Amino acid sequence: MKIVKAILTPLIILAIIKLLMLVGFFAKIEHLAQDCLFRLRGSQDLSDQVVIVSIDDATFNALDERYPFPREYYAKLIHNLNLAGAKLIVFDLEFTESTSSFDDEFLAQTAAEYQNVVFAGRLIETTGSDLHQQLLTPVYPIMLQNLSWGVTNLKTDIDGVIRRYSLYHYFAQKPQYTLGVAALANRRVYQSDWDKHIQSNNGYLQVSNLKIPLINDNETLINYFGPAHHFPYYTFSSVIDDSLTSLPGQMGYERNEFYKLMESGVFRDKIVLVGADTAELHDYFSTPFSSSSQTPGVEIHANFIEMVLQQKYLRHLDFWYYLGIQAASAIILWFIWSRLRPIWGAIMLLILAPALYLVAYLLFINEAMILPVVQSILLLFALYIVALVKQYLTSLKEKRFIRKAFQQYMAPELVEKLLKDPKSLKSGGSLQEVTVLFSDIRGFSSFSEDHKPQETVQILKDYLTVMVDTIIHNDGFVDKFSGGEIMALFGTPVSLDNHALSACKTALQMRNRLAILQDKWRDKGHELFEISIGINTGQALVGNLGSEQIFDYTAIGDSIKLGASLVEIGPNYGTQTHIIISEYTYTQVEDFVQVHYLDEVKVKGSSQAVKIYEQIGLQ
To answer: How many other CB atoms sit within 10 Å of the CB of residue 178?
Structure first.
């Protein structure tokens, strides 16, 4: 039952952590920790296959027009990019609203002439009592030419950061592929039948000869190659600035920047994405490289396309596999932290948490694998804290039990020492050297028969109270009573410097205090009795030798039997103090006590003859 409980506890903690990670706050922290992996890794090399033409502030200054620009500019852009050798032109700009029929037709015809242009649409979803979808397609002339297009929808996580790229959305039960997928398909198969070269199976989306791993059915993780503006950017106005185009913002100065770009070959055989890079058009987003919205949307599409071209995908470790690792680790750590001292547990925690993040970083840069970092670190802290609380409560319960069990039989100072180190109370006991003191009322049976029970009980109570107080005062432990017999241990459960001497001092003080009691009883007319005391020192099995239900701290062994035998043979010797000690005790106190040699006897509990002494006093 204890083992089952010990296994269930860390598993329950793991389940709670898993549930917590579904809460928005913890999910955000997890995302932030994973984003740091991108920043630590830094920027990655590009394939030089993707470039961006941006409508930026310089474009607005050069054209000196309000947005949206006349569509003849975009037709000029398509024409010039093809002159410069562009392989594919992808617009991250939506031509979903008609302007003049001539401009729309001119743009569509220009694109149809080159057959290497991908336009953009958008899927609008409104939520309410029912999900309502509206598909905004490019204008009619573009659709009439059967030109390629894809939707530009970008999906953010709960914290507003884009980490996933949607590959398609369903509209009217048909997949509408996104801009990046349309671009990848059209780099090999142009125009009308490009979507026929896309297949979804076995967790992948096959786009022509490229396989894209799927998560959440229609998404893939974006492996960002760097922060904003990591890709080559060229100004929209510079691409259309040729000898046939006059830019109003240049105030009569003909720069003809396009020819320089064409001669440099920056567009030759490239996928050219065209999008906005100005605050005026509100097309900025947050990425793992930037907590603030500063990455143009067109560059997010560029990162996706670059990732697929290089086949450098990110992936999560299999959920069930990682859950098994977490469960096994949680059980092992729970067993360790439940038994480890708190300070060592804290040191272990401070080592494990950074080590876990380091492992996550190494897997990220070497295997492109993302681990749930915060979730695992939270699990470490939760296991340690709960184990710490468990240790504290167990210690508190143990101390309450020890105090209750021993405060009546030991000095308060010894109880406090025992509370600091309760290891000696383990069930089963251990072999220790102790000194046992037995005292017994001589002829107690006869004494009790000659007196009324109430009188016997009162006299016995007065006697035992004084004797117990004497034992406790000398750091002894009162083990048990049996009628008029007392058994006391010295040197356990708390060790003493010279437990044999403590027992000898106790015996003398018991004799003195008995004399005081006898004077009191004599004055009251009570019958007096004498006691015998036997003391022996030796090895004994000491500890909790009771059952699971009843705690019984005691000592057993031949040395204990010898001590009891010394009390039994006491009346056979006409001693003055009635205190007999064995030679084993005497060897430890011979410099401190006065003795009188009595005999060498073979008593019960000893296989050989033992020298015995009467203790007379102290040196």
So the answer is: 25
Q: List 233's β-bridge partners, or say none.
A: 52
Buried residues in 290-306 as b, exposed as e (16+ CB within 10 A)? beebebbbbbbbbbbbb
Q: Whole-angstrom Cα distance, residue 614 to residue 471?
A: 20
Structure tokens at 285: 């987003």
Q: Which residues contact 24 (CB under 8 A, 6 or more apart)?
A: 158
**Architecture in CATH for domain 421-618:** 2-Layer Sandwich (3.30)
Q: Distance between CA 176 and CA 125 in Å, rounded?
A: 14
Cα distances from 469 to residues 291, 407, 432, 496, 506, in angstroms, run 73, 12, 25, 18, 10
Written as one string, the DSSP assignment of 136-149 is EPPPHHHHHTT-EE
Beta bridge pairs of residue 556:
541
Three-class secondary structure of residue 479 per DSSP: strand
Q: Are 303 and 225 in contact (CB under 8 A)?
A: yes
Q: Which residues contact 80 (CB under 8 A, 6 or more apart)?
A: 239, 240, 242, 258, 262
DSSP string, 511-533: HHHHHHHHHHHHHHTPPP--EEE
Q: Determine the average pLDDT of the residues in 95-124.
A: 92
- Taking the C-alpha atoms of residue 369 and residue 361, their distance in angstroms, rounded to an integer, is 9
How far is the CA of 359 from the CAs of 21, 264, 353, 366, 377, in angstroms? 20, 44, 10, 10, 12
pLDDT in tens, 369-423: 999 999 999 999 999 999 888 887 776 666 665 555 555 545 455 455 555 556 5
What are 135's two structure tokens? 């598909």
Tokens 């592929």 map to which residue?
A: 177
From the list 322, 320, 316, the residue with the least C-alpha distance to 369 is 316
Question: Alpha-carbon Rg of the chain, whole angstroms?
Answer: 46
Residues with Cβ < 8 Å from 481, sequence gap 6 or more?
464, 487
- Signed CA dihedral, 378, 379, 381, 385: sign only: positive
pTM over 0.85: no
